[in-house]
Amino acid sequence: MFKFAGIILGGALVILAGCATQPNEPLPPNWSAPDAVVTAPAPRMKKSVPPAVKTNSPPVSITKAAPVLTWTSLNRWAAEQKISGPAKLASSPVTTYSVSSKNGVMVLAIGVREATWNGVEIHLGFAPEFIDGQVFVHGLDLQKNLEPVLLGEPLSFPATNRVIVIDPGHGGLNSGTISVLDKRLEKEFTLDWARRLKPLLEAEGWRGFLTRTTDSDVSLSNRVAFAESHHADCFISLHFNSAAPDKKESGLEIYCLTPTGMPSTLTRGYADPLNEKLPNNAFDAGNLQFAVRLHSAILGASGEMDRGVGRARFMGVLRGQKRPAVLIEGGFLSNSTEAAKIENPAFRQKLAEAVAVALK
Ligand SMILES: [Zn+2]
Fold first, then answer.
1. What is the pLDDT of residues 5-43, one digit of tens each?
2. Residues contacting residue 272 through CB under 8 Å, at least 6 positions apart
3. Ligand 1 centroid to 168 CA: how many Å?
4. pTM of the predicted structure, to 2 decimals
5. Which residues surround ligand 1, an ion (CB under 5 A)?
């Protein structure tokens, strides 16, 4: 409950968070820019809803094939999926409902895009609505956010010879964001995190490859090509965040590619063409499962504030991936308390261990 209150109060403050991206300045070379740059300004969308039909009957059939732009009664959907219907949890400060399966519990708040899955935050595409005494959820959220975690089989990787590509963000002249404490650079910390992670994953039976092992600038398309040529089963891009000049924002956020038809959580000034269908969209369900698993493990180990699993469409290292792929923002170098943690090697070891635990 407090969580949702906090989200509402804090929602307006988080709009510009991101690696080295400051308001009213040209975007610097960035991990997140697509190689083919599209720069039409677009705000982070909070509650935009494309035209959709609200219906309580007949039930919508959720298929894997095509996005369903229909609002559906959560009661009806749950019955169709043979799970228990939504249970009301609270009426204030916002009305919240839970829906459960053998996999866990999703908590949805009316009029709020942030939901929680087993206690960690997930950003929905559309805020659930309350109509005629029932909770309605957008079909794309049912298909792309609820179904993978509530109904899906857990994400699995090959038992032998499984390959992970770890991508330390930035490098060379592309230095990422800077520490508010002493101007140390994001690229240094992401590389160190990746170097710590590789042996931990190898101890768990993974073959791990880094997109860069030195302070070198590797293009985003080459990072994707590297994952492809190494036949990676999954891909993790490691970053640290900035909300400069704001010094208060803090916490962990993980991004995966926005499903086709859904508005992104984060656009950072880039266009967000809803109907774009990208190679990595073939992995929408796996992306979310992968992100949630990592998010939960890192939150538990680091004690960071939960900023949620979000969706972005513009991140060049994710768009072309033919495997589950996520981008982790491991904390804010623009916040002095968090920057002090990130600069501490023991904290980066903790982050690495959390990722390895998630991939056991
Ligand atoms: Zn970064």
1. 334 333 333 333 456 333 333 333 334 443 332 223 333
2. 42, 45, 258, 263, 264, 313, 314
3. 9
4. 0.84
5. 19, 31, 169, 176, 239
